[in-house]
Amino acid sequence: MGIMHFAKPEPFESIIPPQLPGSARFYNFTSGAWEVVTGGLLANPSTRKLGGLSAFALLAAVWPANFYQAYKDLSSGKASTGKKIYHAVRLPLQIPVMRYAWSLYADKN
C-alpha cells in the first residue's frame, strides 16, 4: 500500500483529519514512505525486530485517519452496509495487529 500513497494520493489525503496542522499531502507522503520502509524492515529477518516497532508506531500514527474515515463515512448517512461492516471490522482489528507488531519487537530472539 505504501507505493499507492504516491501513485494515487487522493484517497489517502481525503481521510487525513483536517484538524491536523500542515497539509494532507505531507501526512500522506510521510505515511506512505513509512509503510515502504516498514515493509522492508519486516521482510528482512535481521531487521524484523525494528520493523515490529516501526509497524506498531505506524499503526498508532495512522489510527486517527482510519477513525476519521469511519466517522466521515458513517455520519454522512450514506454508508452502505458493506462500508459499515468494513469500518466495524477494520478499527478493532488494528488492536491485535498492533499487538502482533509489538510482539515482533519484544521477542527475545
Automatic annotation (TrEMBL):
Top-level lineage group: Bacteria
Organism: Corynebacterium minutissimum
Official protein name in the record: Membrane protein
